[in-house]
Amino acid sequence: MLAISGVKKTHDGFELGPIDLAVDAEVLSVLGPSGCGKTTLLSVIAGVADPDAGTVTLNGTDLAGRPPEERGTVLVFQDGALFPHMTARENVAYAATSTERVDALAATLEVDDVLDQRAATLSGGERQRVALARSLAAAPDALLLDEPLANLDAPIKRRLRDELRPLLSSLSIPVLYVTHDQHEATAIGDRLAVIADGAIQQLDTPGEVFAHPATPFVASFTGSTNLFRARVDRTDGSPVLDWGDHELEIADYECEVGETVEFCIRPEYVAIVENGVGERPNVLEGRVRRVVFEGDDYLVDVAPEGVNDVIQVTLSPPVYDRLGLADSERVWLSLPSDAIHVLGAGE
């Protein structure tokens, strides 16, 4: 187990921590924006930087004062950091336990065709994959990956992301996987730690973090672009929020009547319905304000009547084509009560 207790680090005016983490034989995705402290945390664990306070232990051994090469950890930075005078094969084999392991990892990471090239001649993506193969070949007690897929093209990144998850899980060691990409974080991690401003904002399973974000930052960074404020109108039966001219039924959260709360709903959970308001709860009339095609989906901004906010809706191309939406067109939105999440309710 990798245990991080009360770790603090100040660097160039930036303060990390205190950080408390316990990572067992699992993959922990560490998600956050640039400059939030992700790489600083890995550097402290690996011994590249000394903490100002706190302890790092690995399998019960305090790592304080131990140089990087004696800690049992391997850190892979975003740029790969290969030995430029060596071939790719020599880099991977540097700490490998067998030739067979070198060949197997090279095939998995698709660098078997460049093994005899010098590292200095490799492309950025090839260098990153060779560095990843070298780190896995070393059979470390803990593996620290800093944006390992950042330099790869989208198709290769997506495929390696899917292949890395079982590979990393099979290691049965603590793995910290740092990324700013929410899709990578959720696809690879058993658990997900969201970091901002040097502090862990939320630590849970990816599904729980995405469905029930703990803070406005977590909500926005993980894709809940629909983040609004409302007042709790009543709590008897299903709680109801007053949102502009609308009453929204929500799930059974512990709210106080009259309390102003922040709530969010993911764009993919909002539906555009064709039958109008009728007697159904949480159906709002609005007008289309903008449509953006993102390749896999359409993002549709809708301004509901009676509220000074805009709701974003994610539609698949078949649904968008069926609806045939146009700018300023009148539509009806359905917000399922169990998809509306009140931030911090019940805490």
Tell me about this structure.
By secondary structure, the chain is α+β, with helices and mostly antiparallel strands. It folds into two domains: 219 residues, 3-Layer(aba) Sandwich (Rossmann fold); 119 residues, RNA polymerase II/Efflux pump adaptor protein, barrel-sandwich hybrid domain (OB fold (Dihydrolipoamide Acetyltransferase, E2P)), CATH 2.40.50. Helices cover 24% and strands 33% of the residues. Strand 17 and strand 18 form a beta hairpin. The model has no long low-confidence stretch (mean pLDDT 91).
Mean pLDDT: 91
Distance between termini?
29 Å
Helix proportion range: 10-25%
What is the tally of beta strands?
20
Count structural domains: 2
The strand order across the widest sheet is 6-7-8-3-9-10
Cα shape: globular
The low-confidence parts are: none
As for the CATH topology of the largest domain, it is Rossmann fold
Structural class: alpha+beta
- Separate helix tally: 9
CATH class of the largest domain: Alpha Beta
**Major sheet: size, sense and barrel closure?**
6 strands, mixed
Q: Beta-strand percentage?
A: 25-35%
Rg is 24 Å
